[in-house]
Design brief:
Blueprint lengths: L22 H9 L2 E5 L4 E7 L2 E4 L2 E2 L10 E6 L2 E7 L8 E3 H4 L5 H19 L10 E4 L4 E4 L5 E2 L4 E9 L4 E6 L11 E4 L6 H13 L3 E12 L4 E10 L14 E6 H5 L2 E2 L15 E2 L5 H10 L4
Parallel strand pairs: 1-6, 11-15, 17-18
Antiparallel strand pairs: 1-4, 2-3, 2-7, 5-6, 8-9, 9-10, 11-12, 11-13, 12-16, 14-15
Bound molecules: zinc ion.
């Protein structure tokens, strides 16, 4: 099932997980594979043509022999692997943050899977049970301990992200301490062990801005592999007093903004844009983020 509104969630390839243990098939498939290459810092080579920007997949023969081969999946007879290599021409490599808004559904799905695996492998080189080295197994989808043989699976860390509104024309947005003046987004936070998603939504909102909420509803999810988040999106309504009591560690500022104020905000970019002194809310996250998906659905009156 795909979610039309969430750009990084529209994976259109078959993961074909039953092939991951079939070494003979994998070896043959590699020879005809399209390889999604990423750098250790998760940039990927891109090409621009008349129809837009696409990832530049490599022939398997161009991938250094020492690079781990991770089987991503298939589209028809086309086989996709991922490999991590050093950038050859840095100018043509882009991060997901830069490339994401231009990626089509197949590129986005392949890339988030390749990056999520790479981020996990980088951080799990040793066995959490005994401390010995682990090695990649199951075509990159597990690591196996070289001492005790235990298998370890890629992490996915759930984080909740929520659009809080007042039931009328105001939404609650916050600004993180590192974001710079004028940049606001929906509130978000990690789910703790032993906690439900809905409880995490209510707890994070109360911790960050001191506001009680009700009518918490799930809207959709999107992977964000930096390093292992699954962003789970909700909408909820303030319950009682809307006065904000800020947690100064988590939030630099937060406020209630009207639809008109939010519509006038520009997209966040990494480019420097001169702030407009008269306006507190200057920018909101770009279109491929789940935060923007929640904001846009509220602006349109759908939620
Ligand atoms: Zn071990």
């Amino acid at each position: 099932m795909t979610q039309p509104g969430l750009p990084l969630s529209r994976a259109t390839f078959d993961r074909a997980a039953h092939r991951r243990a079939d070494d003979a098939w994998l070896a043959e498939a590699w020879t005809r594979a399209r390889v999604v290459v990423i750098s250790p810092k998760s940039a990927t080579p891109v090409v621009r043509d008349g129809s837009g920007t696409r990832t530049a997949t490599w022939d398997a023969a161009a991938v250094p022999a020492a690079a781990p081969r991770r089987f991503l999946g298939m589209v028809g007879d086309t086989v996709y692997f991922a490999a991590t290599v050093e950038p050859v021409d840095a100018a043509q490599w882009q991060t997901l943050r830069a490339f994401g808004p231009h990626a089509d559904d197949l590129d986005a799905g392949l890339l988030v899977s390749a990056i999520a695996l790479e981020q996990w492998h980088q951080r799990h080189t040793h066995c959490p049970l005994c401390g010995a080295d682990t090695i990649e197994s199951l075509a990159g989808w597990t690591r196996t301990c070289t001492a005790d043989g235990s298998a370890h699976f890629p992490r996915t860390d759930p984080a909740v992200i929520m659009l809080i509104h007042d039931g009328a024309d105001l939404a609650l947005l916050g600004r993180g301490p590192q974001w710079g003046e004028g940049r606001f987004s929906t509130l978000a936070g990690f789910v703790e062990p032993g906690e439900s998603l809905e409880s995490a939504v209510a707890r994070e909102v109360f911790e960050e801005v001191g506001v009680a909420i009700t009518d918490i509803r799930y809207l959709g999810s999107q992977p964000w592999p930096f390093p292992a988040s699954l962003m789970v999106g909700f909408v909820a309504r303030v319950d009682g007093d809307p006065a904000i009591t800020l947690d100064p560690v988590e939030m630099a500022e937060a406020g209630w903004f009207t639809r008109d104020e939010i519509r006038q905000a520009r997209d966040w970019t990494d480019d420097h844009v001169e702030p407009e002194p008269a306006r507190r809310l200057q920018a909101i996250p770009p279109h491929f983020s789940i935060s923007r998906y929640l904001i846009d659905r509220w602006l349109s009156g759908e939620i």
